Amino acid sequence: MTARFVLDESSWSRAVEVEASELSNAILALLGRLDVVNERNEGVVKHVDFYESDLGDEIKLYSVLFELDCPLLLEHDVKVLLSLALDRIGDFDDSTLEAYDVEFNGITRFAPGVAWGHACCTNRHQVAMLPLPLSGVSRGEISVKVENVINQVFFVVEEYEHLSFFRTVIEVEKADEEMFEHLASSAFPALGWADDVWRGLKLLSRPYVDVRSELIRYLGALNDYGAHCFSQYLEENPQQLSGVLSSRVGAATTDENGRTKHHPASIKDRTRSYRGDERVFWWHVKLSPNVDRIHFLYEPVSAESSNFEYGRIIVGLFKDHCILPG
């Protein structure tokens, strides 16, 4: 597994300046983000000397974690959790790095992790930083300069930054169909996928590379807003659902009409297997007015989707156009 994340040691330099509660909360937030990275099997690394990270006032991270007389106190449970997490993270190879000093947000700082991530981006492998999320920490897409080379590097704190990073990876690395499928669970983690759904990328009217940006945009919107819209409007205001979804997705998003739903050939053409069941995917996003569709259905909260507050959108097929009556 090739890592997509690296710990940013430079973000720990203000640790001594903040209240103990803020420091503990920031560490727990970072550990929570690491859990997400591990659950999605995205890979994370750190510099071999990460325990030497400067927390300010010449206090090192290893001192906080392991020395009883350290002036910077941290709750015992937080220290244990952080130590366990760091022990599970491998080290990156820094032998090819030309510099450890980096510049971003107008400040030059010693940051081997950021330098390594910057070098990966230069080599067309996008890597994001995981900073300690204290107030004022760098976040989002930041211009980082190393040895006069500037790259746009992501600093991930919140889930929306996490998702934005992986959607950018698909674009920047010009992901082919196989890579798109591989990255989908990270770029669109709230979506489910029917069996063999990805073969449909070859069934669109335009070549995959020509629709890649549209797929990222519309699948991203279904991931971020789709289930919430259905949970709000499906029962109480179903007549408004299509309009709200279309607005959120950024393209016409509709259900099929009643005549189509009673047409055997149309039913069969939209039926796919999902979790061992045959399901019909009536709802669809229109990439163009008359051609190319993303077909999906809404799965309310259930035992299978209990981790999703509003239920889940399941993508069933990509196709130029499904069969219609007549």
Written overview of the protein:
With 326 residues, the protein is α/β, with parallel strands linked by helices. 37% of the residues lie in helices and 20% in strands. The protein has ten helices and 15 strands. The strands form five sheets. It has a five-stranded mixed beta sheet. The model has no long low-confidence stretch (mean pLDDT 96).
Write the layout of secondary structure elements.
Layout: E1 5-7, H1 20-39, E2 44-46, H2 61-66, H3 76-87, E3 90-91, E4 101-104, E5 107-110, H4 112-122, E6 128-130, E7 140-146, E8 149-155, H5 159-172, H6 177-187, E9 191-193, H7 208-233, H8 238-249, E10 253-254, H9 258-261, H10 264-269, E11 271-274, E12 277-280, E13 283-286, E14 293-299, E15 312-319
Parallel strand pairs: 1-2, 1-6, 2-3, 9-15
Antiparallel strand pairs: 4-5, 7-8, 10-13, 11-12, 13-14, 14-15
